[in-house]
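Section handout 9: paired folding examples.
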Amino acid sequence: MTTKYTPILLILTSFLLLSFTATHKQAYQIFDKKGKVSSYKKMLQAAKKADVILFGELHNNPICHWLQLELTKDLHAHKQNQLVLGAEMFEADNQLLINEYLQDLISEKSFEKEARLWPNYKTDYKPLLSYAKANNLPFIASNIPRRYASMVYKKGLSSLDSLSEQAKKYIAPLPIEVDLSLPNYQSLLEMAGHSDPNPSHFPHSQAVKDATMAYFIVQTCTNRTQFLHFNGAYHSNNFEGIFWHLKQQKKQLKILTISSVEQVSISLLDKEFIDLADFVITIPESMTKTY
């Protein structure tokens, strides 16, 4: 029943809602690829239906790393022992070390001493590896050894042909197909500049990473498994990079991409990030960094 106090109550309610909106600080906001506001719940439901999830992170952003761990837990609850984890941050020739550590054959101290770990391993990637260890999940070191990517940067893609058969086991099968017309690789060509005598070396050095990560993902995927892969957002943005190479190797894969971006305001997705990925996690630029 309407009373004479109803307008006053409506005004007070509106004032309180506006005050809450003005003071409530969101740590992140998720959007779909068209820029429509979405949610973690919707992202999780979509992820459950995928064969491969490419979680593109900002390497020094704590929100990315927290959401990676939460998504791992939730997908594990759904897929159980059919979930496989993998990451750019571990190089293929360290797979034996990872396996030995996960199986308790070597100590944590030995693993951390011998593996070529990123400086932010303990804060950002150790929780993922520890979760895999605690729950008997495979963890795949998917990246090309950095020394071989460096070879390509300095000497070109053909330099990989000179490697031994043992070394080639840690790289996608040669020759590696690279489409330099893809926008992401085109931007790297532009960064190399016209003064560079070998401008294609830079995008090729990134492409061998993308191709190798895709190769080890495909090698692990079966009809029963789901692969959750962690990589820098650049390597899967715009449905290129790892995504493109996955489709070249196994067209039928259902792939979900997640990207991460920083904005001054996260209430709307900036136009430049529309169609960046299936889901885009926007994070305030002022967010604390892990390094």
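Moving on to protein 2 of 2.
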Amino acid sequence: MVGTGIAGLVAALEASRIHDVTLVTKSELAESNTKYAQGGIAAALFDDDSVESHIEDTLRVGAGLNSRRAVEVLCSEGPDRVRDLIRLGVAFDREHGELARGREAAHSRSRILHAGGDATGAAIEAALVLAVRESAARVIEYAFVKDLVVTGGRVVGVDVIAPAVGARRLEADSVILASGGAGQLYRHTTNPIVTTGDGAAAALRAGAVLSDVEFYQFHPTSLAVPGNFLISEAVRGEGAVLLDADGRRFMTGWHPDGELAPRDVVARGIARQMAEQGGTPVLLDATALGGTFLRERFPGITRVCRDHGLDWANEPIPVTPAAHYWMGGVRTDEWGRTSIPGLFAVGEVACTGVHGANRLASNSLLESLVFAWRSVGVLNAPWPLDDHAPIEPADAIADSGVPFTRGDLQELMWNEAGLFRSGEHLGHAEEQLGRWSPDDSGSVTAQENANLLDLSRVIVRAALAREESRGAHYRSDFPASRPQFARHLEWTQSQPARKVAV
């Protein structure tokens, strides 16, 4: 197992009941994107809700690119998996003895469970870390996964670099990648420093198929201070509104749902407003909710605001969009199986097809939970034949030897392949990325930068190839969705493999 967010921890815990499990993680066991998830986890657990409603909400936001079968699996199995978390000791918030729930953008029902107000991910991570520590799984912390080991067309292990074991090869019958996303691709990101796309890049180099990589979701509201601390969507779900520099609401002019429109719509609305007012942040006004409510419902956000000299109970706070979640990743089936036998991918590193072109709020923790659990159930099953046409790996881009820094890459991706894209800007990004080469020092930082470079190249190529706007992918030169692009674009070895109709 690679990675210790909710996906990796659940997979390790379940697999260790009957398998010999080694779990490696890049930092300490409890460090992952999961730890920072504020909003919650969505599931149809209540009498006035239904699995069908959750399915329809997810499909509507996905802009025609979801895998319906994967969405049905997510929404139908989700409630039982959330109950598993409760049995493991996750203390979701309650009101009058019943599970408390909130509503977030594009959900037609209040179905979002939260814990500790705005510390849902931290509560889940803590409970799962404790359970894994008490399990039979072997844990190796501070282990950087350099590459996957492929023999005879099958993944049979990983090469790691770790203080505890040095540079060594860990052999395995199967490898489950749960290594998270690649938020460090962008200058503004809500992701922790460890999210450099190592698992996805290693899978790409091994010949695995990546899908939907052009779809990167930008969260509308991060605090406009260094670090881009996330201001949960749940704040707007509770009634907070967005204001321009003159104190006027503006989102109602972009979408009838205003602040509760899908994330891509809100993020672009904010970005446009910021451009109109000279780049200054917009304001999130939660003052109508009251200081007591804000302290109790969002204690973490309240604390961070206070640390930055902001009193959000009495004045609006500055916010800006930031890179948040990658809908694309290593292509899998509904059991987490990739195009390479022996390799599974679950969580943000995977592309199950659940999210389509745009993720529905609070579906990410649920996806990790459901598909991690499912992947363990087929560890001993025969690997299915890939029902796609065979793929011939293409040569990677030849580096030109020009050095770059991570900051250089993040600035380029933010400016040329961020919320607003065009053929001109993407073409410029492709040319620049083709000139850069990571240093060959062999350090972990150098290898992380190489991974970010590989993924930047494939994301930009995919964004160039998708000549339309759909979900989180917006092309100013192709502002409408086009029927001929209602399909997934799939890639291998940083080159286009083929374009597959849905």
